Amino acid sequence: MSDNTAEIVDAPEAERELWPALRKGFRRKCPNCGSGPLMKSYLKVRDTCTVCREDLSQNRADDGPAYLTILIVGHLMAPLLHIVFVRFRPEPLVLFTIFAIGCVSLSLYLLPRLKGCVVAFQWARQMHGFGKKA
To answer: Which residue ranges run through the membrane (predicted)?
Structure first.
């Protein structure tokens, strides 16, 4: 005997474009509309978009943006440090000061933007509840 009651399965939401969402996230804008601000402070993601009311509370960025920031800053600054040292031979204190300021500045610039990219990636791939309708 077969059971006539069919299990109702929600159809998946339409595919979301990844690259436009990542560009919006890098600009720290809502990955859905691209107009509303994604962050309400330096690294705190808003619960909902102020323009389109998209639910952003599902994000699970955790340590991902910090790891990406360290990866990018390290891969940019380490070869640059070597090139500057070998070619120009500046005083050690001058070299340290310039590269310390450069590393901190680049890290502070990239961290919120990469967090926006991580949140936008999760939104585009419908991860962590971003695909559910309330």
So the answer is: 66-86, 93-111
pTM: 0.85
Non-local CB neighbours of 70 within 8 Å, separated by 6+ positions: 107
| pLDDT confidence bin for 130, thresholds 50/70/90 | confident
pLDDT in tens, 29-65: 999 999 999 999 999 999 999 999 999 999 999 999 9
Task: Please count the structural domains in the chain.
Answer: 1
Q: What are phi and psi of 48, to 5 degrees?
A: -140, 150
Question: Dihedrals φ, ψ of 15, to 5°?
Answer: -60, 135
Is 131 within a domain?
A: no
